[in-house]
Specification:
Helix content: 25-40%
Number of strands: 12
Distance between the termini: 7 Å
Number of helices: 16
CATH class of the largest domain: Alpha Beta
Strand order of the largest sheet: 1-7-6-5-4-2-3
CATH architecture of the largest domain: 3-Layer(aba) Sandwich
Order of helices and strands: HHHHHHEHEHEHEHEEEEEHEHHEEHHH
Number of domains: 3
Strand content: 5-15%
Oligomer: single chain
Structural class: alpha/beta
Bound molecules: pyridoxal-5'-phosphate
Shape: globular
Radius of gyration: 25 Å
Largest sheet: 7 strands, mixed
């Protein structure tokens, strides 16, 4: 295998004896390796590793990083992912030695500062959500969903209602919602959307009943639309004895404006790696804390941080569902989110949400004359266009539009999601982009709409200017080549 990107693989430039490091003299007694590691685990032959200089390694990884698109490079309107700028002050805080040089096995008295940070962060998230108490353990949004569903289940069981085995999920839901419900051993019941893109309330009324454990909802939903019927929806579900789970992965439209707890939700998860600006993409580490109502607090995973007589202590809630993650979750991610919240303050967080909504509506307004807009109403942090006009009139698919955007230096929006929009293009600009960047994006989308009309064939073979051309993404996901092998 050789690199298709033009960046030589380190294995290819390896030269015997070349090295980029020198270990210090041993200053402890030498122990033979087979006393440390059982012989059956020791390799019999030397590993074939690339032998390269430090400069070659630096060049290799720097060149690779320049092939990649990131929010530090250019616009990244990947809907539902909230690819906002990650302020560098977060990184400064996360690298303070008081945070990096501590160990989770240290006694509580010696890590009061870290516990205080976790306690405060939980309190802030509770304040934002309008709910009672938090766990910071879940490692991602989907993990928060699973934790929240386990809590809902434990709650019903504690009330002698363990027979409730159905979770209702709208057809516009993020894929993790039904997946989490399945993993928590629930039957997934789908509720359709109405013509305005919200939950079909009449249909919901028919679906709830004695088997309903709860409803999972994102509001604003994946179409970027706020469901004005939310209080009625909550009433229907609560009257049937179910609970409401809020998928707050993208809370970027609501901070300081609407508290999900005040609209009837019982459990909320937040993605710190979206709304609260901790870096993401490429698989982690993320963080998906959940906040629950007072009646669900006894079921939270342990340990939770509590404050007693001015000291921070670790507690096990009375009916805890157990641990969902080793130690305390992804602590350095928590530090970054805490720094973000503290540096913005309550007013600042509200401004973040206001600007995110204005940016999305600005783009939607300028793009709806070029691409079909299936739900033409004010959006929140994102909106969904459809490429169906381009498909019907010129045979150009949404995939082609997305690929062509890469030639204009923009990351593609989320495509073919949500599933209830044909040829969907889901666009989320976030608040951190300037008007100039948004205008450049509109211009690129306009040029692509013109190209679809005048030169559809060239769109179908886009991208033309990226380091690699159109890739077989399905094969890359199903049969990834993750190891170098000598030819
Ligand atoms: C991103 C997202 C999730 C899942 O979050 P992960 O951290 O990727 O597990 C769930 N719901 C919505 C609406 C999302 O956008």
């Amino acid at each position: 295998m050789t690199s298709k990107t033009g960046v030589p693989l380190l294995f290819e430039i390896s030269s015997p004896g070349r090295r980029g490091y020198r270990l210090p003299e041993l200053d402890v007694p030498e122990v033979p390796v087979d006393e440390l590691i059982p012989t059956e685990y020791l390799r019999q032959q030397e590993a074939e590793l690339p032998e390269v200089s430090e400069l070659e390694v630096v060049r290799h990884f720097t060149q690779l990083s320049r092939l990649n698109h990131g929010v530090d490079v250019d616009f990244y309107p990947l809907g539902s992912c909230t690819m906002k700028y990650n302020p560098r002050v977060n990184e400064d805080m996360a690298s303070l030695p008081g945070f990096t040089a501590i160990h989770p096995y240290q006694p509580e008295e010696t890590v009061q500062g870290a516990l205080e940070l976790m306690y405060n962060l939980g309190t802030y998230l509770a304040e934002l959500s309008g709910l009672h108490s938090a766990t910071l353990q879940p490692a991602a949004g989907a993990h928060g969903e699973l934790t929240g569903l386990w809590i809902i289940k434990a709650y019903h069981e504690a009330n002698g209602e363990g027979h409730r085995n159905e979770i209702i999920v709208p057809d516009s839901a993020h894929g993790t919602n039904p997946a989490s419900a399945m993993m928590a051993n629930y039957k997934v019941v789908e509720v359709p959307s109405d013509e305005r893109g919200g939950v079909d309330v009449a249909a919901l009324r028919k679906l709830v009943g004695p088997k309903t454990a709860g409803l999972m909802l994102t509001n604003p939903n994946t179409l970027g639309l706020f469901d004005e019927n939310i209080c009625a929806i909550a009433e229907i579900v609560h009257e049937a004895g179910g609970l409401l789970y809020y998928d707050g992965a993208n809370a970027n439209a609501l901070m300081g404006i609407v508290k999900p707890g005040h609209t009837g939700f019982d459990v909320v998860h937040y993605n710190l790696h979206k709304t609260f600006s901790t870096p993401h993409g490429g698989g982690g580490p993320g963080s998906g804390p959940i906040v629950v109502s007072e009646q669900l607090a006894p079921f939270l995973p342990w340990p939770v941080v509590a404050k007693e007589d001015g000291r921070y202590v670790l507690k096990r809630p009375e009916k805890s569902i157990g641990r969902v993650k080793s130690f305390y979750g992804h602590f350095s991610v928590l530090v970054r989110a805490y720094a973000y919240i503290r540096s913005h303050g309550a007013e600042g967080l509200r401004q973040v949400s206001e600007a995110a909504v204005v940016n999305a509506n600005y783009l939607m307004h300028h793009l709806k004359s070029l691409y079909h807009l299936p739900y033409d109403r004010h959006c929140k942090h994102e909106f969904v266009l459809s490429g169906k006009l381009q498909k019907e009139q010129h045979g150009v698919r949404t995939l082609d539009i997305a690929k062509r955007l890469l030639d204009y230096g923009v990351h593609a929006p989320t495509i073919y999601f949500p599933l209830n929009v044909d040829e969907a293009l889901m666009i989320e600009p976030t608040e951190t982009e300037t008007k100039e960047t948004l205008d450049a994006f509109i211009a690129a989308m306009r040029r692509i709409a013109e190209e679809a009309e005048n030169d559809p064939e060239s769109l179908k073979s886009a991208p033309h200017y990226t380091p690699v051309r159109r890739l077989d993404e399905a094969r890359a996901a199903r049969q990834p080549i993750l190891r170098w092998k000598k030819e």
